[in-house]
Amino acid sequence: MFLFVVIWFSLASASAQLAVGFYSLSCPGAEFMVRNTVRSAASSDPSVPGKLLRLLFHDCFVEGCDASILIQGNGTEQSDPANRSLGGFSVINSAKRVLEIFCPGIVSCADILALAARDAVELTGGPAVQIPTGRRDGRISSISNVRPNIVDTGFTMDEMIRIFSSKGLSLEDLVVLSGAHTIGSAHCSSFSDRFRQDSTGKLTPIDTSLDRSFAKELIDRCPVAANPSITVSNDPQTSSSFDNQYFRNLIAHRGLFQSDSVLFSDSRTRRLVEDFANDQESFFASWTQSFMKLTSIGVKGDGKGEIRQSCSAVNI
């Protein structure tokens, strides 16, 4: 028997009724169709899971989990430089096209994105998470809302705590959700602030605690005036697997971003990093809870959103 559970959330000044099995009657195959789309895309492009997970973060932290990041146009969230390297849009659009054939006007783009990111984690070896659905799509997407609400890779711990706290997320959630960096990749510009040019023009690490061999690998991969299209795996050792290697990397001083490394250097979060590095099951259990909270930020219910016909544009 299909379990139908109603769950109430109220986070980031927004509330909505979400339910596990929300589409069980109106579109029974919704989650299956999203999963198949993600699996197909990931089989041909291994970078897809990481892109989908990052896309979800950038959506939920700005205007809540309402697919506002998917809206195209001048002055939208996509226009911000921090969002120009986002990917995975085509996967969401593909899933939407399939769903509109079988269940027209039923499944929101916000739910598709949340489900796709959930599936991306499971498909790369992470925990299976049963998330509630019933989100509606937002009608506002503004570039001005981006910078005050997203975490920059060069942030200090206090800056990250401020952003996460404003979304109803705890210090533990911050550490757990940073574990998303166990998959995916980043452009050289996202960690260039960790290096400086010396008098001879060579790059040297600013953070002397950064593992020397790792720093050299990054410099070799991203020299001065490197091609902007070059990327580096967030977790080079197991870049395609959702596991706890990310936390082991932090202990070994091999965190890619400054915002990664500070999780181990700061006494407030060091113990959690060590715990997750030593116990993958503990990380997975915590991920399940924190991911549920992430996908519930600022969700919109009836009267506060819509079901878009196309994920890239609001309904007319």
From TrEMBL:
Binds 1 heme b (iron(II)-protoporphyrin IX) group per subunit. It is found in: Secreted. It holds the Pfam family peroxidase. It comes from the Eukaryota. It catalyses: 2 a phenolic donor + H2O2 = 2 a phenolic radical donor + 2 H2O. GO terms for cellular component: extracellular region. Heme b binds at H181. The record marks R54 as: Transition state stabilizer. GO terms for biological process: hydrogen peroxide catabolic process; response to oxidative stress. The keyword Nucleotide-binding does not apply. Residues 17-315 form the Plant heme peroxidase family profile domain. Disulfide bonds join C27-C103, C60-C65, C109-C311, C188-C222. The keyword Cell inner membrane does not apply. Keywords: Calcium, Disulfide bond, Heme, Hydrogen peroxide, Iron, Metal-binding, Oxidoreductase, Peroxidase, Secreted, Signal. Ca(2+) 2 binds at T182, D235, T238, D243. PANTHER family: PEROXIDASE 6, PTHR31517. Ca(2+) 1 binds at D59, V62, G64, D66, S68, E77. Removal of H(2)O(2), oxidation of toxic reductants, biosynthesis and degradation of lignin, suberization, auxin catabolism, response to environmental stresses such as wounding, pathogen attack and oxidative stress. These functions might be dependent on each isozyme/isoform in each plant tissue. GO terms for molecular function: heme binding; lactoperoxidase activity; metal ion binding. This is Peroxidase. Belongs to the peroxidase family. Classical plant (class III) peroxidase subfamily. Its EC number is 1.11.1.7. Its main location: secreted. The active site is at H58 (proton acceptor).
